[in-house]
Amino acid sequence: MLAREVHDRIGSGLALALRRLDMLETTAAGSDPDAAARLQQVRAAVVDVLCATRQVTSALRDSPPAVTPFSIEDALRGFVQAMEISEPIVDLRVDGVDGLLPAAVADAVFLAVREAMRNAVAHAHARHVAVHITWDAEELHASVADDGDGFDPARAAEHGSTNGLLGMQERIQAAGGVTTVTSAPRRGTRITLWVPVKERNTRHV
Ligand SMILES: Nc1ncnc2c1ncn2[C@@H]1O[C@H](COP(=O)(O)OP(=O)(O)O)[C@@H](O)[C@H]1O
Ligand SMILES: [Mg+2]
Prior knowledge:
With 205 residues, this protein is α+β, with helices and mostly antiparallel strands. It contains six helices and five strands; from the N terminus they run H-H-H-E-H-E-E-H-H-E-E. It starts with a helix and ends in a 9-residue tail after the last strand.
């Protein structure tokens, strides 16, 4: 969704700016060589941003790295970097040995945590997002907590557009785990995940 937002809003805005520059350049070209040169610089700057935007949208759309086992921490840090945001500040702490996680668990957790982070960035107007993931050979715990606007999870479901949250819960459930969403208007949002690492594990509180 954020990929689409970035693409539709920023990408299209920049494309429009380029078309206007085209028109300006045509008018300015004959009359003022100096203005034409400056317009050229503006064009280069706009093209630069357009390229950066495309990199972000493709990074946002990317599925987890094809190589398994991959590093959840590296993948999430790559995601944060690709967004090139200054706010919210994302504090990411990962404590676990990648080799301990079955690929299916690593995939599910990466995608769920990324969606929770994406939501915190896209919807919360948060200043901070704290992301903690920790696991051993038995189980994994993850939390994504922002200090933003919060929302009413029950009403979000009523109003449709909960593909991200539903998808997250379905993925974690398919991995045998449990998701909780704690949020209230103006109280920030906290998503927690618990996932068994060993199959024989069953849900506990
Ligand atoms: N961290 C958050 N802070 C504030 N609102 C949120 C947050 N996460 C989700 N929401 C709200 O819940 C809605 C559903 O989220 P989601 O299922 O991921 O769909 P989408 O992100 O595509 O809108 C969002 O549109 C938003 O209104
Ligand atoms: Mg979402």
